[in-house]
Amino acid sequence: MARKPAEEVPSLRALEGVPLPQENPHLFGQEHAEQQILTAYRGNRLPHGLLLSGPVGVGKATLAFRLAKFLLAEPDPSANSVQKAVSLGIAPDHPIQRRVGEGAHPNVLHLQRPWDEKRKTFRTVISVETIRRIVPFVGTTAGEGLWRIVIVDGAEEMNRSAANALLKALEEPPVRTIFVLVTARPGQLLPTIRSRCRSFHFGLLSPEAIAQVFEALKVPQPPEKDLRTILSLASGSARRAIELARGDGLSLYRAINRAFASDDHAVLTAVANQAAAARGAAWAEFFDLVGGYLDRRIRHLPEPEKGVSPPELPLARWAELWEKIHRRSAEVETFNLDRRQFVLNVFEAVAEAVRHPHRPIFM
């Protein structure tokens, strides 16, 4: 009997139709960090630990792999080609592009939250077992003059044991081995890990840079009016903009606006049904949109779309709602509670707070 082929393991950062960071040869809007790293390499001053921090979806992982490819293609920092390089990009048809993109280069170790085959989901943390893969990796022969690159993607997701194991590797770095830590929350890393890395902060992308990403990755651009709303909601994140442009994000955002401005049970129920039907990334997107809406209320910012009139509440009430919704959403995820009822409770809590500004908020 023929053996059943193994199912392909999904990628943690995958967006349908969009290249993964290791496959993507393009980088936009982060020239400052790229030039700092290139300058350090040219001067033979590249640190063994690099910490790339910044918001989600702004190019941190892309630059990590871009650096890995450049080091493998240009292992000698004193080479004329390195001294004349204007970026860390290498030719799109260079063999290293393909090998790193396919995860097939023996000198690149990419570590992130692993896939749980039994539960068909990604694990919630990077465990010590994952980080311990570094030991045999750095113990192999890299080849004369070549680099080894360890990329820890989502480094803030390491548990304590994993963080301590990584710290040990950073304290005793092997020759010609570079550790690149990618994180959206550097404050969650051990201070001792941060102190052993040189930090490079990635800022939010400009609308122009996001437009370049759309063009380079061949993401269809929505109508101009929708694009303006998407860019505002994306808050400088190319990934967020792509998710909104390609999915039902804009429709969901408009539905959320209707629900927060209404106390009509039929309207609230319809939006709750739409949100509860979302799964995976779409469900996370719903909470990103709700969180963004509440954040704008707390900061007294207008909605991205004209003509939207959010309900009026004191700042303390919006902050209280945000805190209770955030806490309750974690319980829904942890205990697999009824999503539809939870969403309905969120909208009804806001409507009740508007009707009775001084009553306690219950969810």
UniProtKB/TrEMBL annotation:
It holds the Pfam family DNA_pol3_delta2. One of its GO terms (biological process) is DNA-templated DNA replication. One of its GO terms (cellular component) is DNA polymerase III complex. It comes from the Bacteria. Coiled coil: none annotated. This is DNA polymerase-3 subunit delta.
